Amino acid sequence: MESKRSPRDKWITIYGRKPVLEALHDPALSVAKVVVADNATGQSLHEILRAASKYDVPVERATANRVKWLAGNGKHDQGVVADVDAPRMTPLEEFVRERGKRPTNVFLLDGVTNPGNVGMILRTATGAGFDGVILPRAGTPHVGPLVIKASAGVAFQAPIVNTSTARAAVDLLRTAGYHIYGLSARSHESLFKADLAPRAVYVLGGETNGLTVPTDSDLQIPLNAGVESLNVAIAAAVVAFEVTNR
Fold first, then answer.
1. CA-to-CA distance for 54 and 69, rounded, in angstroms?
2. Which of 79, 96, 156, 238 could form a cystine bridge with 37, CB 3.0-4.6 A?
3. Predicted confidence (pLDDT) per residue in 188-219, tens digit
4. CA torsion through residues 192, 196, 199, 203, sign
5. Burial group, residue 125, by CB count within 10 angstroms (0-12, 13-18, 19+)
6. Quick check: 124 and 219 in contact, CB under 8 A?
7. Dihedral, CA atoms, 202, 164, 2, 200, nearest 10 degrees?
8. How far apart are CA 135 and CA 179, in angstroms?
9. What is the DSSP letter of 119?
10. Which residues lie closer than 8 Å to 204 by C-beta, 6 or more apart?
11. Do residues 118 and 141 lie in contact, with contact meaning Cβ atoms separated by under 8 Å?
């Protein structure tokens, strides 16, 4: 029997009046529902309610505190949140089961905390045809407006894979037969010369602490002229296109 999906594995929750209104009017997006604080008023709210009615999107009323909790951000929700369908988002266990023994390439974000970097990695991985980007709930920003903006809207269509922690993801994937590669400037093995496993996890360490999970082997992107490292989103782009180009 298939396990029941959490709402967090089906929808990306957005907040703020302008983002919600834009999502309602965007033909590429499917809005599951809008939740409005019972004390919210104003012209922009009327526009949201009109658009929701026009596109047959259910509207729920809730307390202002509940809306803040749903947004995960008490400062900028403006009394409105919306759940937008993310058709390629899936929990890790389900992803591994669906992929089976097929060749599969995924990124695992290990403490990448900057929403701009997360958004750019989602955009790059989706554009390169990577099979998934694993976002641990612990240590990775919620896919909110800053991540969506940095992805230029691609986040809604990105192959996001949800998990609890980076360590739990590594344990599960290693057991399932994936090779765990770390990206590390200290490695002596070049990404461009290594024989890469057909089912591979490429771990991208955080901006401050680097890699924190155990890897099977580490790869480096060779750099010249004393340059020590690349921004994590740039490194992800180099990896994604090198791997898929093979």
1. 27
2. 79
3. 889 999 999 999 999 998 877 888 999 999 99
4. negative
5. buried
6. no
7. 10
8. 18
9. H
10. 107, 108, 109, 110, 112, 121, 183, 232, 235, 236
11. yes
Lowest average pLDDT, out of 22-31, 39-48, 71-80, 134-143, goes to 71-80
Element (H, E) at 187: none
Task: Answer whether 45's CB lies under 8 Å from 17's CB.
Answer: yes
- The residues with which 81 forms a beta bridge, in sequence order, are 15, 35
d(CA 242, CA 246): 7
In 3D, which of 70, 73, 91 has the Cα closest to residue 81?
70
H runs (alpha helix) in the chain: 17-25, 43-54, 64-71, 92-99, 115-128, 145-150, 166-175, 232-245
Reply yes or no on whether the pLDDT at 3 is more than 60.
no
Strands ordered across the beta sheet of 80-85: 11-15, 80-85, 31-37, 59-62
Task: Answer left, alpha or beta for residue 198, where phi above 0 means left and psi between -120 and 50 means alpha.
Answer: alpha
E strand map for 64-221: 80-85, 90-91, 104-110, 132-136, 160-163, 179-183, 199-205, 217-219
Of 18, 67, 71, 14, nearest to 39 by C-alpha is: 67
Question: Position 215: which residue type?
Answer: T
Q: Residue 201 carries which DSSP code?
A: E
